[in-house]
Specification:
The structure holds two protein chains of two kinds. In chain A, 33% of the residues lie in helices and 26% in strands. Chain A is an alpha/beta fold. Chain B is an all-alpha fold.
């Protein structure tokens, strides 16, 4: 039986007196793509940050068996640097020294022509593409994506969805937060609902019936 | 060790590139340095106070406050776009992040000092030819002390709402001991006193350097926790 690459057990998180979520368990095996769905303020981003190790859980443990790649709300880049320099900086910190790696990533996210431009002039969609490239610079085993399709145009979203499928095919464990069920259900293997501070699922996705996901989500919201 | 050094230099190079392109802190620091040096020079009564009497104080007020502008910027840069998260996700030790940020700050402050010293010589009519090595030594030692603690405090206050106001409030009390030592040494250097008269202050500065650097590296890891 395959060991999960990411294993969160009985994880709770509180900010001061405010309990964000409690006793959440979620494990992601190689090749799995778990979509996390929940209303605004449900704690999806906090859960991703806890899983990434950027926040400590107030209770519970998170085991990571591999490196983490994170796409967050912010680009994590520097506006005064070019797209290439931003990726090169991340690569240096990860100890990556592969010729052609940066070019390959820029090409993969459709920013080849913009490599030498400072990111201060980038549109939100281009910044999002760069953030995705940055998260992939060290070819992480675990990929955590917070609203990866945000600000992307249709071709951009298509590129990212294909990338997710390709990475899952190569045995990466992927968790993504989204409000775009219909699109994400095309690549997700399972879906988990974070509602009222608890996690329901993950449940396997029937890709032939994506409407079942939104129907279940509506039912959970109504019952919360 | 190679990875550690590589990460430190990557952070220094990145900070230097960003500052070179934006020049935000550098231009502010230079304008500030020129203003302080000239205001203090013209504010004195030349018939009552010689320029040499106020020169050490003027020099260190300039260095200290000009440096603070750069220190303020250091971690604000990492807050923009959540870049600090990007650093923390990498396998780079947190102490390497601190040393890299401190290295970038040292480079910035050294450049400000390098440009301020000729202005200081010009305004205060001091001859540094024979005393330059001693002045460089005291400048380097005092700069290391206040940049170390300044980098740490910059990381601490960056998540507060009024980071730019908080840094001077927290940093100034820590700066008093090394700056007093630096002023005392500088006064003796400019008065051409023998080295033996300054050794006590040099030892004190060396002690501050060691304590501030070690404590800052150790406390930085705690600072990054929530």
């Amino acid at each position: 039986m395959t060991e999960p690459l990411l294993d969160a057990r009985e994880v709770s998180r509180r900010f001061g007196y405010r309990q964000i979520f409690r006793r959440i368990s979620l494990s992601i095996k190689p090749g799995e793509v778990v979509a996390l769905i929940g209303p605004n303020g449900a704690g999806k981003t906090t859960l991703l940050r806890v899983m990434a190790g950027l926040l400590k859980p107030t209770e519970g443990t998170v085991d990571r068996r591999g490196t983490i790649g994170l796409v967050a709300h912010h680009s994590m880049g520097y506006d005064a640097l070019t797209a290439r320099e931003n990726l090169a900086f991340a690569a240096r910190l990860w100890g990556i020294d592969q010729p052609g790696r940066i070019d390959g990533l820029l090409d993969q996210v459709g920013l080849s022509k913009w490599g030498e431009e400072r990111t201060a002039i980038f549109s939100r969609g281009m910044t999002q593409r760069l953030a995705i490239a940055r998260a992939l610079v060290h070819d992480p085993e675990i990929l955590l994506l917070d609203e990866p399709l945000n600000s992307l145009d249709e071709p951009g979203a298509q590129v990212v969805l294909e990338l997710i499928e390709e990475l899952a095919g190569r045995g990466r464990a992927i968790a993504l937060v989204t409000h775009q069920f219909e699109r994400i259900v095309r690549v997700a293997t399972s879906v988990a609902y974070l509602v009222g501070g608890t996690l329901v699922g993950p449940e396997l996705v029937d890709r032939r019936a994506p409407e079942a996901v939104s129907a279940k989500y509506r039912r959970l919201l109504a019952g919360a | 060790m190679r990875d550690y050094t590589r990460a430190v230099f990557a952070i220094i190079a990145k900070d230097a590139t960003v500052e070179w392109r934006t020049k935000t802190a550098f231009l502010s620091a230079m304008v500030f340095a020129v203003l302080v040096l000239s205001i203090l020079f013209f504010a004195r009564d030349p018939t009552a106070v010689s320029s040499l009497d106020i020169a050490p104080g003027a020099l260190w007020v300039t260095f200290t406050f000009a440096a603070m502008l750069g220190l303020n910027r250091a971690f604000l840069l990492e807050r923009e776009n959540g870049a600090m998260d990007g650093l923390l996700l990498t396998p780079v030790p947190r102490s390497a992040i601190f040393v890299g940020k401190m290295g970038g700050n040292l480079l910035f402050v050294a450049l400000v000092e390098l440009i301020s010293i000729p202005l200081f010589v010009m305004f205060y009519n001091v001859s540094l030819a024979a005393r330059l090595p001693q002045l460089i030594a005291v400048t380097a030692m005092a700069t290391v002390a206040f940049v170390a603690v300044g980098t740490l405090l910059s990381a601490m206050v960056v998540r507060t709402r009024f980071a730019e106001l908080m840094l001077p409030v927290l940093l100034l009390p820590f700066l008093i001991p090394p700056v007093v030592a630096a002023v005392q040494i500088t006064a003796r250097v400019l008065a051409e006193r023998p080295l033996s008269e300054m050794m006590g202050w040099f030892k004190l500065l060396a002690a501050f350097d060691i304590v501030f650097c070690v404590l800052s590296v150790l406390l930085f890891e705690v600072t990054l926790d929530e």
